[in-house]
Amino acid sequence: MSSMEGNSMSLPKKVGITGAAGFIGSNLVLRLLDEGGVDIVGVDDLSAGTLRNLEGAVNDDRFTLHQFDCRDARQLHRVFEDCDAIVHLAALKIPRYGGALNTLDVNVKGTEAVFEVAQATGARVVQASTSDVYGNAKAPFAEDDDIVLGPPTSRRWSYAASKLMDEHLGLRLYEERDLQVTILRFFNAYGIRNHPTWWGGPMSPFIENLLDGKMMELHGDGRQVRTFTYVTDTVDGVVRALATPEAAGEIINIGGDEPIEIVKLAEAVQAALDIPGPLRANVIPLDQIGGKYQDVRLRIPDTSKAERLLGFKATVGLEEGLRETIAWHKTLRAERVSGAAGVA
Question: What phi and psi, each to the nearest 5 degrees, are found at residue 271?
């Protein structure tokens, strides 16, 4: 999906991307290069992203990558000073096993740095947010719905709180200082170039564990409902936001339309790997995760606003997305084995 069919507006000529070597960032880089006519400046500290993700871009003279922390506003200004738009993707995710202070610091200060640069240069911003900000609101989630977060005694909500702070800051800067920012709330992106651990959501460890002959881990009762979005669809939402300047000042859900229980997802992953039943999974009670962990029962988007403003609609179904994702995991593992054999 590389065409802008349904959206006739042109893309910015030069785009800065934080988190460019990460999961969504690297797929966005390659999509924009495929679109043509766009120069890209990437920033990544490579704490979670990898240069392997950018193999198809590093030798393209339309792309440059700078390695440093996105919280460094001075460095950001130096490399983004002539960018027409900035896509801010760099962030830390839910602190499932600790590190909540770092999550808060990176997510808030990184966004502050990007907004500071954008105000100084006049660049438009597409800001990545998350469906996690809805918390325990009533699904399906619409962008103007009430936010229902759990208590701060559970560190799990640090991620949502940090991204909600980013949203408030962006919208207030839009209202009071004319920052041209569009906020996208992503719903459970998955697919190629994702991190092969829980950092990449449940899909990655499910696949990796089964390929290793291990059991999958279902946190809680496995009956949580999620809406997964294949990464090319997520990236399509970003590209459409870049091409739609009139979406400034808006929050927009970017997600798929196939809600599924986590236990059913585990069954689908096992079936896609041609592994016979029974289900190879252990249930991990939430109180064994630590940090007074809490989970969200339902996470389903209302995407009517995305369709109306951006012409966005997810097109990759779970069966196709799983097939592509599993093939990528197998390729990654084969490269590891080949690399290890080469070292030996």
Answer: -65, -40
**Cα 72 to the center of its chain, rounded Å:** 21
Residue in the structure block whose two tokens are 């900035």: 86
Dihedral sign, Cα of residue 310, residue 315, residue 321, residue 327: negative
What's the confidence (pLDDT) of residue 198?
Answer: 80
Question: How many helices, marked H, and strands, marked E, lie in the chain?
Answer: 9, 14
Cα 241 from chain centroid? 15
The residue written with tokens 């990437």 in the block is: 42
In this prediction, residue 344 carries a pLDDT of 45
- Whole-angstrom Cα distance, residue 47 to residue 292? 26
Contact 129, 186 (CB under 8 A): yes
3-state SS, one letter per residue, for 157-205? HHHHHHHHHHHHHHHHHHHHHCCCEEEEEECCEECCCCCCCHHHCCHHH
Q: How far apart are CA 122 and CA 81, in angstroms?
A: 9
Low-confidence ranges of the chain (pLDDT < 70): 1-9, 291, 340-344
CA 183 to chain centre: 13
CA distance 18 to 49: 11
Check: CB of residue 136 under 8 Å from CB of residue 150: yes
Kindly report, residue by residue over 52-83, the tens digit of the pLDDT. Answer: 999 999 999 999 999 999 999 999 999 999 99
Nearest-CA neighbor of 17 among 52, 253, 62, 55? 62
Q: Any idea which residue has 């999550």 for tokens?
A: 103
CA-based max dimension of the chain: 60
- pLDDT the model gives residue 199: 80
Q: What is the pLDDT of residue 123?
A: 98
Of all helices (H) and strands (E), which one includes residue 231? helix 231-242
Torsion on CA atoms 330, 336, 342, 344, rounded to nearest 10: -120
Instruction: Let me know how long the chain is.
Output: 344
pTM to 2 decimals?
0.94
- DSSP states along 286-344: GGGTSTT----SEE-B--HHHHHHH-------HHHHHHHHHHHHHHHHHHHHHHHHHH-
